[in-house]
């Protein structure tokens, strides 16, 4: 029951309208233009006027081009054959491999019943102290990396992907630069993880609307694998491009913008993607790490701002380091009491002292005389940055904790550290007592 | 009654326009029918023979021409025994029952009864035959958890009635007829133990609404001592993300001395609700000895659930709160977050193409927020008993900037403001309630004078701190420096609280009184500290001992020992002269 139409009423931005009947909301259509075929999705219905967003963009669309409604919403194939494959934003292979068309699943399915969710309980170790020690990553967490363009966020994502103990990696690139795409591909291949990875790549040169589908495709596939018992890590980069694509469509549709041109439902749109992160009882899990670039390093920009309210924390990447302030893993409390007695205390203690170091550093920069205490803090700050914050540090959590005590003992007396007395008795390094 | 029917003429996101034939009501519920699914929707605007309806489900697959059935009823909730301990979505669908039927995912178009119609309750009649009754008169009661759940004459019956029959004490289901009533005109009604009430209409069956006075203890020191909440009052917690709004709400829901706590998780993360869902049944409420879940109702419409139901969820929560208040209980409603609710209104307003106000929020935002908070209150009933509904809402301002419409509209109508600050949370000073900016119009259970003194120390300490950033430590006098250290001490040992610790997480009123008095003595004392390093060392030690003290149970023998240690340290360093 496919319906074919060949009268396009209007073309505005990447949205076209046609007169058609019996069309369902969010149904897919295929447009044949002189440039080839493109998918389009129904985004609004008003009597018999149907508005569609065209994934390949509207350039070159003729008013008499043929539009064929497919009678179903956007779907994606799901099978083990997908592993090691690379697809584009419409779910079509972009490597040289064969097309996959069996076992189609709908994307953007219903959300998980909160009553069926379980409390996250497993830590994902990354061997990055700023993550493991201070802001532990947890299975089923959704976490963005906030950074300015130019920071090595993709490198960080790739490193976490390779070092994290997960069964599968699903990478979604939205507006990804071609060289970054190749970087991911090469790094994951060299790391020997390609056979357990699936890529959905929309590059910066692809039509912008096509990027809109990438998160849904990734998450639908990840969710299916998770239901089949796999622990899946989904990497999405960059979600700001996704939000910008949403903005473009919303403006074209003449929606009233709420903040800096972004649509009022930006929060709900982002949330419905991020909330796909889940730990299924008796099955697998989906963990989502996303890059969110902050235009102008402004965290109050609508995209990072709304994201921060949705995700379970955030990592700030600044000057090539994960910032200890502002970075937060909301789920760390679920796991960092099961690692080692001193984990929480070291976590809080080191950060409080580092905050004081920052104040002292400011005073020093302004030329004030440094008290004894200030000097201690200065020494501490340098050690902390070199041994904990530097991204090249690659040590296990336990080693990082020991390192923390060493740094403390090198700089302070026990009571200056605000640690609880029993922890000091147990962990203060022997040679310093 | 013939129900109105219509057909869909347009679909835009979660809003549909429906051409109908007959009469409909504003806020009436209708069902859009697609295949086997019946999608619940609410009329939000009527124009000629076109109704604009918000659909409480995903509209994927709906078509122009699909049928819509109107129900003739406004969006309502079921009120009756068996609500306590339940987990509902924004439309009062029980989520656990839904999970049993449909597994991991929230299947579209499924509507279940909010109450268990199979369970039996032991009904004890109070009203007698030929008693005159009206809406909200008590017919009897059933035990629910530790409470007597009162069975009322349905709130939606108008006028006076006489009881013509009432059943004897015994086991009944909620749908069994337990009484019949009749009015002068001969209208008869068979009454059951449950009835429905529209969520957007406040329940106002009381003699008087009173000014909230008595404090509602949350066991969080900075709140109870400095910025108290009153039973029947309202408060808000605005703060940027990551400042600890939700943790603060969770701690409050656990330790607050209310009879019933309703948690409305409105458009926030599902994971946060899950913690409550899984942990509450395991935790024993120290005041009742029963599971904490037995005094809790969770309304859960998390961020990925349909937006329209999010808009309804705060009303559902408020209605359930008012219903239990009607039984003479103290109910605390925690809404997290009211900004998501406001955003849901904004989305709808945008789809209705209304003229937008500031930041595209609708012009009626302020009045809606005011109406919501006005549903709180301490009330006196006809029989001279009291009940209260306290509402605490979090606000998630865009960019953490309080100068935005939702925060500003909320501040106008609430009785206390617990502003969370990014600076404090970055410095890991939790709870990150800003002690300088926050306020409360309610009266603390601790005397005003020492509190004002303590706040003065905080203000002065902050001034000194700011000054030190400019002139450095060497340019600061030892007197000023001591004030700064005192304010830091107060902050560290009293304002900050470790909510993840079993002892420090909740401080009883007795302990707060005791410890605050102790802290106050330190604040007013003159110390013989001559050098800044000496002063800093002393306060470091004092703080260390005090924090250890905070972690010791008051009933533990160690408590007094630790206190003695602290006292000794203070004596060693104080002037012989008495404090100010």
**Poorly predicted residue ranges of chain B:** none
Major beta sheet of chain A, specifics?
10 strands, mixed
What level of helicity do the residues of chain A show?
Answer: 25-40%
Radius of gyration of chain A: 25 Å
Instruction: State the separation between the terminal residues of chain A, measured CA to CA.
Output: 82 Å
Calculate the terminal CA-CA distance of chain B, rounded to whole Å.
Answer: 78 Å
Mean pLDDT of chain A: 92
Note the total helix count of chain B.
14
Mean pLDDT of chain B: 93
Which bin fits the share of residues in helices of chain B? Answer: 25-40%
Overall body shape of chain A = elongated
Largest sheet of chain B: 10 strands, mixed
Radius of gyration of chain B: 27 Å
Strand % of chain A is: 25-35%
Strand content of chain B: 15-25%
Explain what you see.
The complex is a heterodimer of chains A (433) and B (580). Chain A is α/β, with parallel strands linked by helices and 433 residues long. Chain A has helices at 129-132, 153-163, 178-190, 214-227, 239-252, 266-274, 302-310, 332-335, 343-365, 372-389, 397-411, 421-427, and strands at residues 3-5, 8-12, 15-19, 27-33, 36-46, 49-54, 66-73, 75-77, 86-87, 104-106, 123-124, 137-138, 142-147, 168-176, 197-203, 231-237, 257-259, 262-263, 278-279, 285-293, 313-318, 321-322, 328-329. In chain A, 33% of the residues lie in helices and 26% in strands. Chain A starts with a strand and ends in a 6-residue tail after the last helix. Chain B has 580 residues and is of the alpha+beta class. In chain B, the strands form five sheets. In chain B, strands 8, 18, 19, 20, 21, 22, 23, 24, 25 and 26 form a ten-stranded mixed sheet that branches. In chain B, strands 1-2-5-4-3-6 form a six-stranded antiparallel barrel. Chain B has a four-stranded antiparallel sheet with strand order 12-11-9-14, with no helix packed on it. In chain B, helix 10 crosses helix 11. Chain B is globular, with a radius of gyration of 27 Å. Chain B starts with a strand and ends in a 7-residue tail after the last helix. The chains are: A alpha/beta (433), B alpha+beta (580). At the A-B interface, strand 5, strand 17, helix 6, helix 7 and helix 9 of A face strand 1, helix 1, helix 4, helix 6 and helix 13 of B.
């Amino acid at each position: 029951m496919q319906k074919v139409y060949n009268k396009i009423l209007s073309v505005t931005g990447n949205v076209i309208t046609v007169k058609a009947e019996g069309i369902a909301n969010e149904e897919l259509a295929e447009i044949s233009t002189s440039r080839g075929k493109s998918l389009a999705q129904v985004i609004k219905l008003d009597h018999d006027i149907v508005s569609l967003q065209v994934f390949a963009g509207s350039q070159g669309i003729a008013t008499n081009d043929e539009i064929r409604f497919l009678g179903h919403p956007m779907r994606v194939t799901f099978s083990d054959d997908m592993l090691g494959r690379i697809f584009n934003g419409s779910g079509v292979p972009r490597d040289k491999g064969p097309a996959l068309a069996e076992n189609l699943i709908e994307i953007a399915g219903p959300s998980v019943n909160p009553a069926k969710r379980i409390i996250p309980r497993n830590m994902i170790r990354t061997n990055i102290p700023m993550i493991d020690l201070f802001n532990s990553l947890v299975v089923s967490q959704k976490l963005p990396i906030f950074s300015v363009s130019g920071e090595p966020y993709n490198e960080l994502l790739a490193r976490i992907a390779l070092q994290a103990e997960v069964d599968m990696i699903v990478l979604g690139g939205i507006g990804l630069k071609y060289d970054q795409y190749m970087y991911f591909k090469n790094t994951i291949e060299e790391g020997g993880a390609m056979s357990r990875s699936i890529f959905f790549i929309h590059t910066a040169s692809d039509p912008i609307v096509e990027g809109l589908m990438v998160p849904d495709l990734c998450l639908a596939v990840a969710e299916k694998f998770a239901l089949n018992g796999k622990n899946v890590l989904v990497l999405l980069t960059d979600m700001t491009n996704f939000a910008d694509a949403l903005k473009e469509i919303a403006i074209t549709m003449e929606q009233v913008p709420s903040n800096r041109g972004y649509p009022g439902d930006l929060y709900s749109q982002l949330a419905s993607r991020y909330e796909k992160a889940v730990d299924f009882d008796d099955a697998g899990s989906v963990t989502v790490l996303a890059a969110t670039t902050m235009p102008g390093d402004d965290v109050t920009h609508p995209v990072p701002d709304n994201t921060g309210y949705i995700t379970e924390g955030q990592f700030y990447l600044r000057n090539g380091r994960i910032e200890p302030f502002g970075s937060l893993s909301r789920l760390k409390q679920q796991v960092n009491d099961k690692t080692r007695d001193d984990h929480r205390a070291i976590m809080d203690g080191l950060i409080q002292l580092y905050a004081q170091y920052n104040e002292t550093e400011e005073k020093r920069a302004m030329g004030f005389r440094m008290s004894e205490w200030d000097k201690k803090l200065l020494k501490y700050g340098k050690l902390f940055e070199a041994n904990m914050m530097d991204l090249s540090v690659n040590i296990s959590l336990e080693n990082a904790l020991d390192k923390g005590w060493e740094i403390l003992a090198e700089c302070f007396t026990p009571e200056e550290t605000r640690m609880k007395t029993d922890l000091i008795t147990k962990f203060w390094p022997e040679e310093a007592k | 009654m013939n129900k109105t029917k219509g057909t869909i003429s347009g679909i835009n996101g979660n809003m549909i326009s429906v051409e109908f034939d007959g009469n409909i009501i504003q806020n009436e519920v209708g069902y859009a029918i697609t295949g086997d699914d019946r999608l619940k929707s609410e009329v939000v605007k009527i124009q000629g023979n076109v109704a604009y309806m918000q659909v409480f489900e995903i509209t994927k697959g709906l078509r122009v021409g699909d049928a819509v059935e109107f129900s003739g009823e406004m969006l309502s909730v079921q009120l009756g025994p068996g609500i306590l301990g339940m987990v509902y979505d924004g439309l009062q669908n029980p989520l656990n029952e839904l999970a049993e039927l449909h597994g991991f995912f929230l299947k579209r178009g499924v509507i279940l009864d909010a109450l268990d119609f199979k369970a039996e309750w032991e009904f004890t009649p109070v009203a007698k035959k030929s008693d005159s009754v009206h809406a909200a008169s008590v017919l009897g009661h059933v035990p629910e958890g530790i409470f007597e759940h009162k069975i009322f004459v349905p709130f939606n019956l108008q006028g006076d009635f006489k009881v013509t029959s009432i059943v004897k004490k015994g086991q009944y289901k909620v749908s069994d007829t337990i009484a019949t009533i009749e009015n002068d005109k001969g209208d008869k009604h068979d009454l059951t133990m449950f009835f429905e009430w529209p969520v957007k209409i406040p329940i106002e069956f009381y003699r008087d609404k009173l000014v909230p006075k008595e404090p509602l203890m949350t066991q969080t020191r900075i709140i109870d001592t400095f910025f108290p909440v009153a039973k029947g009052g309202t408060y808000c917690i605005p703060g940027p993300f990551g400042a600890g709004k939700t943790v603060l709400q969770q701690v409050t829901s656990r330790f607050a001395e209310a009879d019933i706590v309703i948690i409305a998780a409105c458009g926030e993360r599902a994971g946060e609700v899950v913690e409550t869902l899984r942990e509450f049944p395991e935790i024993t409420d120290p005041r009742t000895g029963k599971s904490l879940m037995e005094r809790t109702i969770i309304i859960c419409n998390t961020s990925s659930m349909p937006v329209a139901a999010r808009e309804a969820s705060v009303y559902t929560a408020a209605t359930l709160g008012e219903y239990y208040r009607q039984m003479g209980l103290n109910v605390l409603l925690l809404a997290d977050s009211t900004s998501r609710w406001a955003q849901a209104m904004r989305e709808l307003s945008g789809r209705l193409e209304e003229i937008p106000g500031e930041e595209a929020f609708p012009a009626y935002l302020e009045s809606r927020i005011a109406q919501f908070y006005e549903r709180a209150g301490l009330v006196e009933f006809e029989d001279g008993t009291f009940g209260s509904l306290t509402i605490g809402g979090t606000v998630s301002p865009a960019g953490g900037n309080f100068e935005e419409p939702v925060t500003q509209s909320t501040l106008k109508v609430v009785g206390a403001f617990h502003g969370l600050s990014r600076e404090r949370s970055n410095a890991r000073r939790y709870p990150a309630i800003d002690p300088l900016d926050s306020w409360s119009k309610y009266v603390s259970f601790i005397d005003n004078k020492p509190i004002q003194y303590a706040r003065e120390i905080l203000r002065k300490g902050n001034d000194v701190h700011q000054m030190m950033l400019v002139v450095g430590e060497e340019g600061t006098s030892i007197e000023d420096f001591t004030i700064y250290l005192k304010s830091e001490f107060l902050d560290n040992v009293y304002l900050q609280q470790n909510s993840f610790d079993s002892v420090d997480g909740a401080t009883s009123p007795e302990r707060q009184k005791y410890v605050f008095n102790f802290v106050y003595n330190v604040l007013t004392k003159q110390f013989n500290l001559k050098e800044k390093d000496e002063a800093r060392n002393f306060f470091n030690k004092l703080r260390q001992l005090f924090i250890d003290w905070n972690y010791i149970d008051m009933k533990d023998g160690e408590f007094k020992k630790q206190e003695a240690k602290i006292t000794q340290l203070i004596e060693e360093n104080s002037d012989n002269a008495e404090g100010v």
